[in-house]
Amino acid sequence: MSRETEKIMKELQQFLALHGDEATDEESVDRLTRQFLLECSSYPHSRKDAAPETADDYLDLAEQASSKKKRLEYLRKALELEPEHVDAQLEMIVHTMEKTPEEQLPALQKLMAAAAEPLEQEGCFKRDMGDFWAVLETRPYMRVRHTYFDALISCGMIHCAINEGEELLKLCENDNLGVRYQLMHLYACTEDELHALALHKRFDSCEETQMLLPLAVLYYKLNQFDRAKDYLKRLAAVNKDTKKFFRAAAGDRLEEFFMDMSPYGYRPFTIDELLEDLLLSPYLFASVPHFFQWASSCLRTQTTSRKRKQP
């Protein structure tokens, strides 16, 4: 769900609250929802072109701003209207301290505490535990914690990041923010086999690049080459560009592939996904300087052996 969709959902909640005397059962709620959506669809352009009125409006403008100066100007206007707006405060922290993640940490901790206070008063940590991303009111808090998680990783605070990642998964058991992938890399970095396997099993042992690659690195680090090879083979089975990626990495030729990556997101199960993984978790791959040569050799040997077996 995009922030724009979240905004519409908030407006729907307000609409239903205004018509609370009519919303007496599921059928009437559905009717009111259809009425609201019909009204929204009848004036999409006027909504888009309307002058900003709320903190959310200015936050939208900040996200679309073409310069840092303009972005900060819109964020300041959002905070003038609503000083306690969590998302606006978060964006201000990120964009004023983008090059100094260690300075972000105390500011994010302070914002987390402030954002948690009304949620605690409303009983969200008991009522909604495990479903925080499914509840609109708790999403800003989740965004702050996820940003804090990323900042800990950027600062090299691996064990603190692991603790934070595990807490995020308690708050959102379905992991809508993809915390499990970075957490898997953190477990591999600390050679924590027990928690890595438990995490993989928790998410149905999915055959995904972001799970299989760090598991291969984990067993390489543990000097268990057979198991590392097994995960490499499983990776090659789901990502068609695995061998090409490792050949290029072993030959120090990845730059040309980075240059071809789309700025609008990577293509799943291609070399883009492997490159993205490399960019997001450099701390893990820096800890195994010979891994790429070894993996490339393993996959090449595997291909050669298969060809020899063919009649």
From TrEMBL:
TPR repeats by residue range: 209-242
Gene3D superfamilies linked: Tetratricopeptide repeat domain (1.25.40.10)
Keywords on record: TPR repeat
Record has Transferase as a keyword: no
Keyword Nucleotide-binding: no
Organism: Flintibacter faecis
PROSITE patterns: TPR
Protein name: Tetratricopeptide repeat protein
Record InterPro entries: TPR-like_helical_dom_sf, TPR_rpt
